[in-house]
Write a structure and sequence with these properties.
The protein has 689 residues and is α+β, with helices and mostly antiparallel strands. The chain has 21 helices and eight strands. It has helices spanning 2-32, 35-38, 52-62, 83-99, 130-143, 157-169, 172-191, 198-222, 228-259, 263-290, 298-329, 351-361, 363-378, 399-410, 428-436, 467-479, 488-522, 526-549, 563-591, 596-623, 631-663; strands at residues 69-76, 109-110, 116-123, 151-155, 419-424, 441-450, 453-460, 484-486. Strands 2-3-1-4 form a four-stranded antiparallel β-sheet, sandwiched between helices. Strands 6-7-5-8 form a four-stranded antiparallel β-sheet, sandwiched between helices. Strand 6 and strand 7 form a beta hairpin. The radius of gyration is 30 Å and the shape is elongated.
């Protein structure tokens, strides 16, 4: 009777799991489809929560007409504008004024050399609706046109936001398809099976769909910000981390199928063996990402929950749906390399066995040379370019950026984008006078009033995002007590300051949380410290390589202020994953009675291939970001991809292994495994009479 019940359970459990997932997807489907509707890439979705520029943007939304959309029309002819050019400009601007509700009739401002004419255009018509803003900008672009040597470009903050939104909106489909294609190619090469490669990919797609539904639920329940960058990172984590978990599980399942006859029992053994490592690794990534909730930068804080959702959905799918499908398909899923019961894998010289042997022969020398190499690479971080400017944040410059550059060249004596001051309405005149008397201010005028606040538009005498304009913004903030100073340039300044603050707060939180999880898992203090030190070294080396190539090779003029923090969070959280896989197997071997050196080399030999495959997949998924159109995404994808490869093929294989061999049992200090086993008492033979 017991045997019959066991057999029934073996058949029923996988089908029940599969049915449960079908039900989950049926419930999640309506919500997943709505995620795109709540995605927001407004200024306030990226700005620091407590910054002046954020307060200005939020207060502007409450003014009559809501948030204003500011454009600048740039008419230019080499050699000087003609009278016909000016008539064309006046007619086109009049058409825009007649078709849209502008705050004031635009007036042309000629350049000193007479070759350029700019018209500031401001409208409250779109309000804070991104779709209406984009429609307004595109309609203006359709209205203006040049020809016969006359060029017309539409720039300004509103146009820049529209061009940025176009890039973010393009992330969803292309990012998903490219990521899936990259993972598919790598899985085919890894598994060399016509069927097996497809299963982790399909399950990752299911997990991604579920994560979209959960992300939408968080947005509705708690107001969690959903941005283009955040949802893109979520997709990458689902496919990257999820495939890593699948590789580890399938590898262990293959081992167990050679030892255990029934696939159901073999899967149970595989889950029992690698389940704790997968749970710990996903917990580490989730804990690291959730530390971003302490960030002041809205974009960073919103990315934490989205990334955590992606990792946990991938974990759930890979530890339930994937095992169920594998058990139902049986051994034949591995065809043509089917692991027969009772068989042994072909004996062949493993690359990782050879690497482990070299690390085992001279562990101290390998450790020191590797540490020196990482330190030397980290010095390249000193060559990182400064903070990227708005005009340099696109890989291919859109019209808004070329217009901005043309304005900077034609009007070096004044700014082409205003500094916006929000002041209490009863102090508007005093604030206006104080602003006009501030060093670096060219002009200032009153704007809208509403909800107890008045808008003051200030024009600096220095070009945008220059040191002189920064001094003007800082002077206004120091002088206008009780008022908020914002606008595009102030936003970039606040982003830089908030990123520096977030790095000081979040980095220690990530290190502490990851370290605590490792201590609990490995029941040691030395091994966790070793793993954390290794991933921090990898982060420094990856940033250093970025410093060596971003400017000279890629031609980037700057780096995103958040690059250091985000790359640290992802590299530390994800890099520790591979350390967990390796050290968990090493601990398993040590508990089985192996000596420390033997346990370390065996762990590398058995998990090295899986870790290498997982590292390649994860690096490739983040490298997909390098095909996106924003410099900050390209830089982030490059640093993380390079860091994962360094971690996979240098740190895990050589440095962690050699350090474990050199430390011996000390690596498990102060746990009981750090102490040598006591010799068994000798059995005294009875004396012969």
């Amino acid at each position: 009777m017991g045997a019959a019940n066991t057999q029934t359970r073996r058949r029923a459990v996988p089908w029940l799991v599969l049915a449960l997932w079908v039900g989950v997807l049926a419930v999640a489907s309506p919500f997943a489809a709505k995620l795109a509707d709540v995605q927001r890439d407004r200024v306030t979705d990226y700005l620091p929560a407590s910054a002046d520029s954020t307060q200005v943007a939020e207060l502007q939304e409450k003014l009559p007409g809501g948030e204003s959309t500011q454009l600048v029309l740039v008419y230019h002819r080499d050699g000087g504008l003609t009278a016909a050019d000016r008539r064309t400009a006046d007619e086109q601007v009049a058409a825009i004024d007649g078709e849209h509700a502008l705050t004031a009739t635009p007036e042309g401002v000629p350049s000193r050399d007479g070759a350029t004419l700019m018209y500031p255009v401001v409208s409250n018509e779109p309000g804070d609706d991104e779709k209406l803003r984009d429609a307004f900008v595109n309609d203006v672009r359709d209205t203006v046109h040049g020809g016969d040597g006359l060029t017309v470009e539409v720039g300004g903050p509103g146009a820049l936001l529209t061009d940025s939104a176009e890039v973010y909106n393009s992330l969803g489909g292309p990012l998903l398809y490219t990521t899936a294609a990259v993972v598919a190619v790598l899985l085919i090469l890894i598994y060399r099976s016509p069927v097996l490669w497809l299963l982790p990919l399909v399950v990752a797609g299911v997990a991604d769909y579920l994560s979209m539904a959960v992300a939408y639920g968080l947005n509705q329940a708690f107001g969690t910000a959903v941005s283009g960058a955040g949802s893109g990172i979520m997709t990458i984590l689902v496919f990257g981390a999820g495939t890593d978990y699948a590789l580890l599980l399938v590898s262990r399942y293959r081992e167990e199928l050679r030892r255990i006859e029934r696939p159901y029992d073999a899967m149970k053994a595989a889950l029992r063996s690698c389940g704790p490592a997968v749970l710990a690794s996903s917990g580490t990534v989730a804990a690291g990402l959730l530390c971003l909730l302490a960030a002041d930068l809205n974009s960073n804080r919103g990315m934490g929950p989205l990334g955590t959702v992606g990792v946990l959905c991938a974990l759930l799918a890979m530890l339930s749906l994937l095992p169920a499908i594998l058990v139902l398909l049986g051994r034949r899923v591995f065809w043509p390399l089917v692991p027969a019961f009772g068989s042994t894998p072909k004996a062949r010289r493993s690359l990782f066995a050879a690497m482990g042997s070299s690390a085992g022969r001279r562990p101290v020398a390998v450790l020191v040379s590797g540490a020196v190499a990482l330190g030397a690479l980290a010095l390249g971080a000193l060559n990182l370019p400064g903070t990227v400017k708005q005009e340099d944040s696109f890989v291919d410059r859109p019209e808004s950026v070329t217009a901005m550059l043309a304005l900077a060249e034609a009007y070096p004596e004044r700014s082409s984008q205003p500094i916006t001051v929000m002041t209490p309405a009863d102090r508007a005149e005093a604030t206006l006078a104080a602003a006009r008397n501030t060093d670096g201010v060219d002009s200032a005028r009153l704007g809208r009033t509403g909800d107890g606040w008045t808008e003051v538009s200030v024009t600096a005498s220095a070009p945008p995002q220059t040191a002189a304009e920064t001094r003007t913004i800082e002077a206004l903030r120091a002088k206008l007590d009780g008022s908020y100073v914002g606008g595009p340039s102030a936003q970039q300044l606040d982003l830089k300051d908030a990123s520096a603050r977030d790095q000081k707060v979040v980095v220690p939180l990530v290190l502490v949380s990851v370290l605590l999880i490792l201590i609990i898992l490995l029941r040691s203090l030395v091994a966790p410290l070793m793993l954390v030190a290794a991933v921090v070294a990898v982060w420094g080396a990856a940033l250093g390589i970025g410093g060596l190539v971003f400017g000279p090779l890629f031609g980037f003029e700057g780096t995103d202020p958040g690059l250091g923090l985000l790359s640290f969070v992802f590299l530390v959280a994800l890099g520790v994953d591979y350390g967990i896989f390796l050290m968990h197997r090493m601990r398993e071997e040590s508990l089985g009675g192996a000596e420390p050196a033997t346990a370390a080399l065996t762990a590398l030999r058995t998990t090295g291939g899986v870790i290498a495959s997982a590292g390649l997949v994860l690096a490739a998924t983040f490298a997909v970001l390098m095909n996106m159109g924003l410099v900050q995404l390209v830089e982030l994808g490059f640093v993380i991809a390079v860091g994962v490869l360094l971690d996979t093929f240098l740190v895990r294989t050589y440095l962690v292994t050699s350090a474990s061999v050199a430390l011996g049992r000390t690596v498990w200090w102060p746990g009981r495994m750090s102490r040598a086993p006591e010799p068994e008492p000798a059995v005294r033979r009875p004396e012969r009479v």
